[in-house]
TrEMBL record:
Keyword Oxidoreductase part of the UniProt annotation: yes
Alphabetically ordered keywords of this record: Oxidoreductase, Peroxidase
Name recorded for this polypeptide: Alkylhydroperoxidase AhpD family core domain-containing protein
Molecular function terms from GO: peroxiredoxin activity
Classification via PANTHER family: 4-CARBOXYMUCONOLACTONE DECARBOXYLASE FAMILY PROTEIN (AFU_ORTHOLOGUE AFUA_6G11590), CYTOPLASMIC PROTEIN
Residues in Carboxymuconolactone decarboxylase-like domain copies: 30-102
Source species of the chain: Lentzea waywayandensis
Length: 159
């Protein structure tokens, strides 16, 4: 579906900020908070984020790389995310982040005791909640942008 964007308006700013200001501005603030306030390591953060981007098919999210203090993941990191089960490029935390993102998006009812046992062996409860909120934000906002065709026009909104 394409949203009718008035001529001269920034599509992201219009949809997220003007069309539904009571929801959109808060949503944009949540989206930004995930990046600004994370305590997760860059590799596990990006493993989960990119796995959601792959599932959503969001073009902008697939091209975006989070930067921290001038550091980004390597160029072929996305290939490792695709092969998260077998790649040698991931430690246990990054692998679990990619697995959790996939299962959260595709089979959240299948998150069983065995999975949580592995997860809690590598992540604190605080980190699990943070990762869950991040995955949820990426899932909903990446899908929103993809469904409305905004992902080809997307830049991170600033409100």
């Amino acid at each position: 579906m394409n949203i009718d964007i008035p001529e001269g308006k920034d599509p992201i700013g219009y949809v997220w900020g003007e069309l539904v200001p009571g929801i959109g501005i808060s949503a944009a603030n949540l989206s930004l908070a995930v990046y600004q306030h994370t305590t997760l390591g860059l590799r596990e953060f990006e493993a989960a984020r990119l796995r959601i981007a792959q599932i959503n098919g969001c073009m902008f999210c697939l091209d975006w790389r989070t930067e921290r203090d001038g550091v980004k993941v390597e160029d072929d990191f996305i290939d490792a995310v695709t092969q998260w089960r077998t790649t040698d490029a991931f430690d246990d935390r990054a692998r679990l982040a990619a697995e959790y993102a996939e299962r959260y998006a595709l089979d959240h009812h299948g998150l069983d005791d065995e999975f949580w046992s592995r997860m809690t062996a590598h992540y604190s409860q605080v980190e699990i909640v943070e990762l869950t909120m991040s995955i949820g934000a990426w899932l909903v906002f990446g899908r929103l942008n993809r469904v409305f065709g905004l992902d080809a026009l997307c830049v991170l909104p600033k409100f």
